[in-house]
Amino acid sequence: MADFSPGQVAPPRATAQVETKESLIASDLTIEGKIEGSGHVRIAGKFKGDVNVQGNLRIENGARLNGGVKAKQVVVAGELDGNIESASRVELLDSAVLTGDVKAGSLTVAAGSKIRGHVECGWDASESAAPRKTNGKGETAEPRELAS
């Protein structure tokens, strides 16, 4: 038997959907300047300048970026001539050409991609990225206590 008596009915919940916008630099555009913001950026053309976004950056195949990058996630299919800093994830697709340093939480490099630069990945912000001292034999020199 169904109960049709009036009771307290919870109002429908409004779902909090944050729409992150994506800005596109089209393949027929060449732009020089600086990009800053909270959304995602996709570059299909040519851009000269730094990109600093809280969202993701994607450099399409055939596109070129000359400048530094700070973004949550970076996917490179085109060319990047500049450093990537503070990304949680960087992915270089098979057509990618990267000339610059990478500092990221994780790095995925596809066969066929090209990279020239210094790479630091997998380090937490709390861990020191300072180079370790070696003992001249390629082994890490551990600090020793001296006997008194």
Shape: globular
List the uncertain runs.
none
Overall mean pLDDT score? 83
Strand content: 35-45%
Biased composition (Basic and acidic residues): 139-148
Protein name: Polymer-forming cytoskeletal protein
Family: Belongs to the bactofilin family.
Pfam family, one: Bactofilin
Describe this structure in words.
The mean pLDDT is about 85. The protein is built from no helices and 16 strands. Strands 1, 3, 4, 6, 7, 9, 10, 12, 14 and 16 form a 10-stranded parallel β-sheet that branches. A 6-stranded parallel β-sheet has the order 2-5-8-11-13-15, with no helix packed on it. By secondary structure, it is an all-beta fold. The protein has a domain at about 20-120. It is globular and about 30 Å long. Helices cover about 0% and strands about 40% of the residues. The chain has strands spanning about 20-25, 30, 35, 40-45, 45-50, 50-55, 55-60, 65, 70, 75, 80, 85-90, 95-100, 100-110, 115, 120. Belongs to the bactofilin family. This is Polymer-forming cytoskeletal protein.
Structural descriptors:
globular; ten-stranded parallel β-sheet; 16 strands; 0% helix; mainly beta; 148 residues; six-stranded parallel β-sheet
Characterize this entry briefly.
With 148 residues, this protein is mainly β.
Layout of strands and helices, then pairs:
Layout: E1 22-25, E2 30-32, E3 35-37, E4 40-43, E5 46-48, E6 51-53, E7 56-59, E8 64-66, E9 69-70, E10 73-76, E11 79-81, E12 84-92, E13 97-99, E14 102-109, E15 114-116, E16 119-121
Parallel strand pairs: 1-4, 2-5, 3-6, 4-7, 5-8, 6-9, 7-10, 8-11, 9-12, 10-12, 11-13, 12-14, 13-15, 14-16
